[in-house]
Write a structure and sequence with these properties.
Elements (H helix, E strand, L loop, with lengths): L10 E7 L4 H8 L7 E7 L6 E5 L2 E5 L1 H4 L2 E5 L2
Length: 75
Amino acid sequence: MKLDQLKPGQKATIIDIDEDGPVAQRLMAMGLLEGTKVSMTRKALGGDPVEVEVMGYALSLRKDEARRISIEIST
């Protein structure tokens, strides 16, 4: 499952970033690392951008960036 598919209030763990290069480095620099827990805070109308909580802070991502992050839903 991809991060952009989470519904507001759902929690997940990042399992992979499906990209190499500068985009992946920027996402990792923002704290989106394998094993990190995230939760979907909200989505804008149309689903872009999305806001997630990661390591205690709110982070807004474009939908295409969130689509590159593979997750596993937490129960």
